[in-house]
């Protein structure tokens, strides 16, 4: 086995190669910084667009008694109702949401996912469970209940459009207006 001589090894490293690696590393750092800045800027743009489309323009158009208009390029602008709804992460509130959906005949949009986590060396019971579930195995399944966000939004939007009330103190719910621009084809 050969001995390591760091001083000799460092002296043998090509300086040009080191400089090119250093330049590449500096470029990586510049790109990482640029991406971080661009993502922050994009967040700002999205928030500004949300306020403009969801608050400022609908409010201004309402002041003028307008619900739609056509832009100079032929694009049609409509003020439409928009709903933002989600099930809170808080266990008590999420349970209340699922109960409300079930009580109001909407339980079929709830997804239930059952899974079991096996430890190392438990391959055989896992394979058996793939074929059939047997209570005597002694495993406790993890149960996950959820509603896909798009399904929830569509369901609550329809429910609201039918004039039915939705408990906004249970769901994370915002019902408002936003502008929708349909560009001329």
Provide a descriptive summary of the structure in words:
By secondary structure, the protein is of the alpha+beta class. 49% of the residues lie in helices and 19% in strands. The protein has 5 helices and 5 strands. β1 (68-70) and β2 form a beta hairpin. The protein is flat and about 85 Å long.
**Rounded to an integer, what's the Rg over CA atoms?**
29 Å
Order of helices and strands: HHEEHEHEHE
The strand line-up of the biggest sheet is 1-2-5
Mean pLDDT: 84
Distance between the termini: 75 Å
Total number of helices: 5
Global structural class:
alpha+beta
What is the secondary structure topology, with strand pairs?
Elements: H1 6-12, H2 15-63, E1 68-70, E2 76-86, H3 91-103, E3 111-115, H4 123-131, E4 142-146, H5 149-161, E5 172-182
Keywords:
alpha+beta, 5 helices, 185 residues, three-stranded antiparallel β-sheet
Summarize the structure.
It is built from five helices and five strands. It has about 180 residues and is of the alpha+beta class.
